[in-house]
Amino acid sequence: MTVKIAPSILSADFARLGDEVKAIDQAGCDWIHVDVMDGHFVPNLTFGPPIIKAIRSWTAKPFDVHLMINPAQPSIKDYADAGADLITVHAEADSHLDRSLQLIRSLGKKAGVSLNPHTPESVVEYVLDKLDLILVMSVNPGFGGQSFIPAQLDKIAKLKAMIGTRPIEIEVDGGVTAANAGQIIAAGASVLVAGSAVFKSKDYANNIAGLRQS
Ligand code: DX5
Ligand code: ZN
Questions:
Q1: Secondary-structure class of domain 4-213 per CATH
Q2: Among 52, 65, 142, 172, which residue's beta carbon has the most beta carbons within 10 A?
């Protein structure tokens, strides 16, 4: 399977967000990773549906929307309407994960669940058939530029075995670099999120290629 690269626009220049989205598109990314933070579920605040809607026309590539908000369920439809293609909620955020996943799919979007570093893979066992993506947080969510937590490699491998032949992507988010991408992929990841590693220097194409080559 070819690994997909999803740059996180959390590390982009927010004053030029449309241009930045266009630039990572032209640099060869696969998805656009959109980090929504509420200052409550995580200790940082980013943006919501109006900004996502505003940048939607700057690329045709899928918007991979990572909701770090609690509750998530009441605003899932707003993110679908704003242009999300994949909507990922946190297993720790709402009480009724199964219902959130059903709602996302009923809106015609791909459904994802994200697991914080301390959350065991077993929480997804009974919703596997309602999932298109599992997002393994390899840092504590809230900020870009943190270091990868190596214990998550074991979780990725266990999820890979649990998924079996189901068409579910395993996406890894946080501290991904060209130096550790190889072992993350070897553990079973199919999508790499990268904020700092893509936006650290102006040559986004080179930075994306560096991750892909790993
Ligand atoms: C963290 C976000 C990540 C973050 C990754 O809460 O979910 O998507 O932007 O940034 P890096 O790649 O810098 O760790
Ligand atoms: Zn993210």
A1: alpha beta
A2: 172
